Amino acid sequence: MYEPQIRAPIMNNVERRQFVQKAKADRLAFEAAELLSQGDTDKAVVLAGECKTLAGNEQLEHWLRHYATTKFKMAHGTVDAFLSSMPPANVAI
Question: pTM for this one?
Answer without folding.
Answer: 0.84
